[in-house]
């Protein structure tokens, strides 16, 4: 069967039913891969992971206005629907759901889902309401689709923990499958926003992963404060001056950790290169 494109909830439900009842059967499992489009290699890896775990793979493309702040890039977020459909179907996607805004936020929609503790730190500090937007859209997509599995990337590690918590606390019967951060040959975490980088900025950005990797050793030898200073001075030395945060937090719950327990630490950074905000994280 070739890929089915659906643009509303009724279409989504009948497409899933066709797959579950037709070529497959009601026991067939469904995995969802939510995306904002601008499909790249990392999204393809998520689809492949979905395919490995479930019979039916559903990708969604929705640039969710609720998760963008006023001065963020909602209006210029890259859009490439035709190419996205081709890439997603080439890697084995069965259904692509590209909902209209009315199918997600119908008139009178009045709900936000908040995972307050996990959402208030790191990216949540500078992007108020961002994770409420993420939590709300993800809850909607999981419930609209009834997916058995959902695949998310560790590149957005805070988001991944928030979604795991959301699913657990709302008793949504969907298993979250994480995949590790996919990087280009220079180590830069692949992101739709990398498209905003010009050649010179890209060269600068290529240093981020190298610096983060060298922080692993630094942390082994020293402590949190020294490692953060080390990362900061290295970022500054390669010309990354606009640093949003560099933090080391607990890998499982993002809490602040002390220097006595080195087993569960993860380094998180967010920086601006020109006007492009890049995030990355690494287990220390
Ligand atoms: P986005 O379209 O950027 O909202 O991302 C959709 C999904 O792809 C999310 O689960 C992201 O965490 C994941 N993702 C994006 N880039 C990467 C990457 N470089 N490595 C792993 N997962 C990624």
Q: Explain this structure to me?
A:
- By secondary structure, the protein is an alpha/beta fold.
- It is built from eleven helices and nine strands.
- It has helices at 9-21, 41-53, 81-90, 101-104, 116-119, 123-126, 130-145, 157-169, 199-205, 207-221, 224-237, and strands at residues 4-6, 30-35, 56-61, 95-97, 149-153, 175-179, 242-250, 265-273, 276-283.
- A six-stranded parallel sheet has the order 1-4-3-2-5-6, with helices on both faces. Strands 7-8-9 form a three-stranded antiparallel sheet, covered by helices on one side.
- The longest helix has 16 residues, at 130-145.
- The mean pLDDT is 95.
- Adenosine monophosphate (AMP) binds at residues 35-36, 42-43, 46, 152-153, 155-156, 179, 181-182, 189-192.
Overview features:
binds adenosine monophosphate, three-stranded antiparallel β-sheet, alpha/beta, 11 helices, six-stranded parallel β-sheet, 284 residues, single chain
Compile the SSE list and pairings.
Layout: E1 4-6, H1 9-21, E2 30-35, H2 41-53, E3 56-61, H3 81-90, E4 95-97, H4 101-104, H5 116-119, H6 123-126, H7 130-145, E5 149-153, H8 157-169, E6 175-179, H9 199-205, H10 207-221, H11 224-237, E7 242-250, E8 265-273, E9 276-283
Helix pairs in contact: 7-8, 10-11
């Amino acid at each position: 069967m070739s890929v089915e494109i659906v643009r509303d909830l009724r279409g989504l439900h009948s497409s899933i039913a066709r797959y579950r009842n037709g070529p497959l059967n009601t026991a067939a499992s469904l995995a969802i891969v939510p995306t904002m489009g601008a499909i790249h290699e990392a999204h393809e890896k998520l689809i492949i992971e979905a395919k490995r775990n479930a019979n039916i793979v559903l990708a969604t493309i929705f640039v969710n206005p609720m998760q963008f702040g006023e001065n963020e890039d909602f209006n210029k977020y890259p859009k490439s629907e035709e190419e996205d459909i081709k890439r997603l179907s080439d890697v084995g996607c069965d259904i692509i759901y590209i909902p209209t805004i009315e199918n997600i936020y119908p008139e009178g929609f009045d709900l936000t889902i908040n995972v307050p503790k996990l959402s208030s730190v790191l990216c949540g500090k500078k992007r108020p309401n961002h994770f409420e937007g993420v939590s709300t859209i993800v809850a909607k997509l999981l419930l609209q689709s009834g997916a058995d599995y959902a695949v998310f990337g560790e590149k957005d590690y805070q988001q991944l923990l928030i979604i795991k918590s959301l699913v657990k606390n709302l008793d949504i019967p969907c298993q979250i499958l994480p995949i590790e951060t996919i990087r280009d040959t220079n180590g830069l975490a692949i992101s739709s926003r990398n498209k905003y980088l010009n050649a010179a900025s890209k060269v600068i950005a290529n240093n981020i992963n190298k610096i983060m990797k060298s922080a692993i050793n630094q942390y082994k030898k020293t402590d949190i404060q020294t490692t953060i200073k080390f990362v900061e001075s290295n970022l500054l030395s390669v010309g990354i001056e606009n640093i949003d945060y560099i933090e080391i937090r607990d890998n499982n719950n993002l809490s602040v950790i002390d220097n006595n327990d080195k087993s569960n630490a993860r380094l998180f950074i967010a920086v601006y290169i020109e006007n492009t905000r890049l995030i990355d994280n690494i287990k220390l």
